[in-house]
């Protein structure tokens, strides 16, 4: 697909979404509009926080890889057991939180469903 075409389509979709939101906002009470605005701010903050967490998990995963590589040398920095204890479940956590973050960023995704999936994975 042509890049210019794709951005044009995305722009059209965003315009229609904005028009739909304005139309819906006109029929909502001030209280409902305030609640939606608060929800959007909350979702934005959760997404920002999750993005920062994914960035940190990525850094930790990169360090894990470096330490894991050193295990195969004549002078490993950590033993395999130490590596597994210190970096326990980091790859799984990174994968889980990347999926959660991607779900939060989907405009059509249910935020509640994203949290349900997260909780289901961690067995809470």
What's this, in brief?
With 124 residues, this protein is mainly alpha-helical. Helices cover 82% and strands 0% of the residues. The chain has helices at residues 3-27, 30-71, 80-86, 90-105, 111-122.
Structure description:
By secondary structure, this protein is mainly alpha-helical. The protein has one domain. The chain contains five helices and no strands. Helix 2 (30-71) packs antiparallel against helix 4 and helix 4 (90-105) packs antiparallel against helix 5. The chain starts with a helix and ends with a helix.
Low-confidence stretches: 1-13
Helical/strand content category: mainly alpha
- Calculate Rg over CA atoms: 21 Å
Share of residues in strands:
under 5%
Overall geometry comes to elongated
Features of this protein?
single chain; mainly alpha; 5 helices; 82% helix; disordered N terminus
Map the helices and strands.
Elements (H helix, E strand, L loop, with lengths): L2 H25 L2 H42 L8 H7 L3 H16 L5 H12 L2
Helix pairs in contact: 2-4, 4-5
């Amino acid at each position: 697909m042509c890049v210019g075409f794709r951005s044009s389509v995305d722009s059209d979709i965003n315009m229609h979404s904005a028009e739909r939101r304005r139309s819906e906002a006109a029929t909502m009470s001030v209280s409902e509009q305030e609640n939606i605005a608060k929800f959007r701010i909350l979702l934005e903050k959760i997404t920002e926080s999750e993005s920062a967490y994914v960035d940190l998990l990525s850094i930790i995963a990169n360090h894990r890889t470096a330490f894991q590589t050193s295990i195969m040398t004549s002078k490993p920095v950590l033993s395999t057991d130490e590596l597994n204890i210190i970096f326990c479940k980091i790859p799984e956590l990174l994968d889980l939180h990347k999926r959660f973050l991607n779900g939060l960023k989907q405009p059509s995704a249910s935020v509640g469903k994203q949290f349900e999936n997260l909780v289901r994975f961690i067995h809470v």
